[in-house]
Amino acid sequence: MKSFLFSIGILFLLFEGIAQPISLHPENPHYFIYKGKPALLITSGEHYGAVLNQDINYQAYLDVQEGYGFNQTRIFSGAYCEGNESGFLNGQYVEWDKVQNTLSPRPGRLITPWARSSREGYQNGGNKFDLDRWDDAYFHRLKDFCAKAEERGIIVEIVLFTALYKPEFWRNSPLHPANNINDTEDVPYNEFHLLAHKKLIDYQLKMVAKIVEEVNAFDNIYFEICNEPYWLKGIPEYEASIKEQLFLPEMEEWQALIAGQIRETEKKLPRQHLIAQNIANTYYKVKEVNPAVSVLNFHYAFPPAAVADNYHIGIPVAFNETFAGDHAPDRRKEAWAFILAGGAVYSNLDWSFAIDDVTGLGRNVSGKKTSGKEVRDQLRVLKHTIDRFDYIRASPVAPGEFEELPDNLHMQGLKIADRSYLCYFYKERKMEAGSYMLSLKKGRYTITFIDPIDGKILKRNSVRHKQDKLQLDFPFFSDDIVLKIERG
To answer: Please, which of 212, 262, 311, 362 could form a disulfide with 369 given CB 3.0 to 4.6 Å?
Structure first.
């Protein structure tokens, strides 16, 4: 009877999921459910300025995402933007007009939740902002972006705040006292999150409530509280006292306040959306999760230890920013490893999307011609493969299940025990192809080796397995290979 009632409950939740925002999957909350179907998110997206930068043709950009079968993108709210002094590409500072960073609008082309006043003086062109009035044009653009994304099956991660990194970026913000007519506190850039600055915090909370209200009707959104909050006190390049990421009570307190505002606002609204918290760069073992938070975000999370060491929490673990986003071999490796470790999101920061070139094909006439096509082609193979695997019923393959792998051959995999496996193997250095043993229930299996670059089958055979362990004879591969095992 309990089993029957549980099944009815699952069917009810699945039915409800058709008319609900993207949510945690009721059978396996390490992943999502969207429009009644299992979902994990893979993309290669622009630098978060598609809404706040009025020169971005976001419909054309979303068409590119849809064409590759990608289903996620990130946007910043407008409380932060980067100026025209420089951009950041592949670890090197270069002139703005060469990068055409989408998060750095041309003078006068920034649009934010706040309306412009009649007083001149915003440092990046146009009038100062009036934090007591909303800009209807901004919210029209925000909602149209979400609607166009929803038409294409694309989930929008709305990032409300971010670390400011350096004084120059703080001076770009409408919240900076020089940029508004509302006399916000003149605070250091690395204190804008401190609760003691009550007037500044009040404007932040009002912005959160307004955005949450305006986008409540959309099912294809979730919120991130703050991008890289562990750099709120500054980064080593600009603050000599900062040596590493910081995880301070004041940061948790502020993020809890923002998350609470989202929850409090949505209590009065028809839909409740997921909230993500950016945990760390590379790795961090989470000790306690804010009850309002449902997604754990990491940046540069390779090797994917952040998945394994936080998997027990039972919510999605996301890799939502990468480095050198147009370098295909590294992006392919980290994406496959993260997703097959049990991750739920891989969002590549793709610098090939420029202000004047949303194709991502290197057609940026006035600047650096960077193409992200190779990365996107290879990520499409991952998306295609994982979408055809029953990951909702799967769990990570434990270390040691493949016997006697050499030290320089690494594996991440998902399995439905004794039924199907999807595993990714990658090398640190040159080695010969080998044979490795896997403990597996007796039966008939189809064994397929796939090239993750283009999805081509390298080897396939069917075997009747009669022993306790199955010998897998790998074909030669240069860098990495995918193994799929299916029973029956």
So the answer is: 362
